[in-house]
Structures are given as structure tokens and as C-alpha cells.
Amino acid sequence: MRISQASVSVHVGVIGGGTVGGGVYQAISRNAALIASRTGVLLKIKRVAVKAIDEPRAVDIPLSLLTTDWRDVVNDPDVKVVVELVGGTGIAKEMILTALRQGKSVVTANKALLATHGEELFKVARENNTALFYEASVAGGIPIIRSIREGFVCNRFLNISGIINGTCNYILTQMEAQGHGFEEVLKEAQAKGYAEANPSLDVDGHDAHHKISILASLAFNAWVSPEQVYREGIRSVIGLDIQACKEWGYKLKLLGVVKYISQESGIDKIHVRVAPTLIANTHILARVDGVFNGVSVFGDVVGETFLYGRGAGQDATASAVVGDITDAALDISKGIPDRLIPMCLNRQVSVLPIEEMENRFYIRTVTGLGDEENAKQLVCGEGIQINSAKVIPTGPHSFVALLTEPTSWKKINKVLSMLKACTTCAAEPVAFIIEDFVGACSE
Ligand code: HSE
Predict the structure, then answer these.
(1) Low-confidence residues of the chain, pLDDT below 70?
(2) Do 320 and 394 lie in a common domain?
């Protein structure tokens, strides 16, 4: 492909030569001319910092670009865009701050770092009249950050709900398809490389927690730290939960939710959480299966929209990172590196504690045979209305699942403690929210 006559070159430095770093190198090598023909900016990778020069790499990167010192990348005067692909919340922070303080644009995929230190990093970017791009930090290849920040700029966000962890979605999908238990499917996911040897970051909901905190902050222009956000992973889900939900017309998904509740004295009250959630089979999110991600965005002007794609993997993540590099390079080429405010944090929000939320719930307990009615009575005794019930005998026990009318998390928590205290209780009782998408699309 011919490179446009008007192209200007922008040098890029990458810190991290692993899976994503290799993908970024490959994508730019393959499509730099295409990008230049579309934007007038030719991306050139000048340096790549790696752990060791001779480590095995899935993608060959020319030796002449490699260094083992990240400062060689950040301090290279030709490098105008620094890409941080190291991950974690330690040295990565120093790398990004060093680059921003030199007025360089930074691109990162590091959700844990942004969720923990984003407020400071975005402030330093503004102070140094530069930008910090982070499209790949949420939902991999899906352009959700760009959509919320730019495409939907005229909207107030009423509901953003997403399946934003591919590992959990794969496990839940396989549990439903094969009828296997969590542990068995987790092992299989690990063998296939879909789950890490230490799966906690994914299955305990930390990864989705970071991502939903970033989306909440971006959508409401106010810093929402993970400490303000309720988190629950999928370890407590058993096969019979999935089966019961299916019979009732629901899918059980690990869902990240940001919901507008109301406004008081100019301050938005919002609800943010990550938790296993029942979604009606008819909702488009219920059709997001396997390792895929999907995010539904309901804006007051646009109505319901939906984005779907791969949330992880070399090429999907590289696509998002190179999109950011291109934006950064384009702004630099026009002499306005701070054209885009990466995350505007000029408002205040009040994040409602989950205890204050009212929802319909799915409750499950495993009782001794003959104790099923007691469990139901206990729930009703707390003033919770049961809408539907299922009892499935499982050997010496009974699996008891209930769907409730709207009630508070406070009452649900009390009931869970009481169910747990029953002498015949054979498994930790659980309660999962049924998401009715009120105020958003419920079709
Ligand atoms: N481990 C994540 C997932 C991908 O399973 O979706 C990186 O955020």
C-alpha cells in the first residue's frame, strides 16, 4: 500500500515484549502503511524494552530495537508515544509517570494500575499537557472507552452492563454446556490456557472489578475507586444454580454494572458492582458466551447500544493498543497532544452501598431432606416475598432455589446468615441479583 505523501512519522517506544507487545509490533509492521493512508501518520517502533534479549518470543522483534532497560525507551528523545505493557501496580506506575512528566503520550492496557492509581496518573497527564490512553484496559478489542468518551459524548449514561471477564464467562458457559462443576471446568480452562495457574484475579472478580471501576469513573466524570464497588466472583456457583436459572428463563453471568439511580443537589447517585447475576434469556447479554465479552450501554439520547468482541488475546488487545497509539500520534502530529481529555474527573458522585439497593434475587440453599419448607418459611419470615421455588432432591439433601420479589440486600444478607445457621444446611447459601435492566432495555 502506498503511504500518503503527507504522512508524518511518529516514533513509538514499547515497554514489554510479551504476548501483547509482540502483537503490537506485528500489527504495526503489517498495517502501518494502511494506518498512514487513513490518518497521514506513519507509526514507527523505535525501541522495545524486554526482560531479556534472548528470551523466546512468539513474534520476532529485530534485535536492533531491543533493550533491557525501560529508561532507554522513555528517555529516547525521538520516542513521542510510550506504550506500557508490563502490567501490575509496581514499576509500571513509575514508567508511566516518568514518561508523562517528560510530556510524552502514554498508552497502557493496565487495568489494575488505572483502577488503583488512575486519579493520580490522569492528573499528571493533564499537568504535563499530554494524554494517557487506555482502551485495552477494558474489554480488550472492544472500543468501549472510545465509545463512552467520544461516540456517546452527548449522553447521560443510565446503565452500562458488561460481561467483561472472558475467563469467568468461559467457565460459566462450559458449566452450562457440559453440566460439570466449577473446579472441573476451571482445570480444563487452565489446560487450554484460558485461565491462569492462579485464577483468583479472574474467578474472584478482581479483574472485572478493576474494569467496571474504570467504566464508572469515565461515564460519570468522577473518580470511583474499587473500594467503593461491590465485588463477588463465581466460585460459589454450582451446576444446579445454572440449571435452575435456565429452567426459569435466565442465564447466570458475571456482570459488571454501572447504574444511574438519581441526582441530588447536582450529585449523581450511582450503583456499581461486579457479581454473578441472572439475566433474562431474551436480553442480548445472555447471548454472550465462551471467552467473548459484551457491553450494553444505555444512554438517555442514544437508547440501547451493544458492543461485542474478544476481551483478551494478542490480536484483540493489540488492535485496541494500536488504535490508541494512532490517536496519540495523530494528536502529536497536529501539535495538540492533550486534545483528548483521557478521563474528565470534574464531578462528584455518590456510590450507593449495595446494602441500599433493592433488587429481585435468586436465593439458593442446600438443606437436609424434609427441611425445604423450613427454609422457605425462614425467607418469608423476613418479609421477603417468594415468586417461584424449585426443590431438587440430591441424595441426602435438597437443593432449594427461590426467586424473590424486589427486596433489600440487607434483608437478603440476614436471611443468608439464618439459612447458614440451620443445622441441616450442607452448602454455603447464596443470593444472586436478578438484573431487570429497569430504566434501560428490558426486552
Ligand atoms: N483475564 C482477563 C479475562 C483478560 O479473562 O477477561 C485480561 O483482562
Answers:
(1) 1-6, 438-443
(2) no
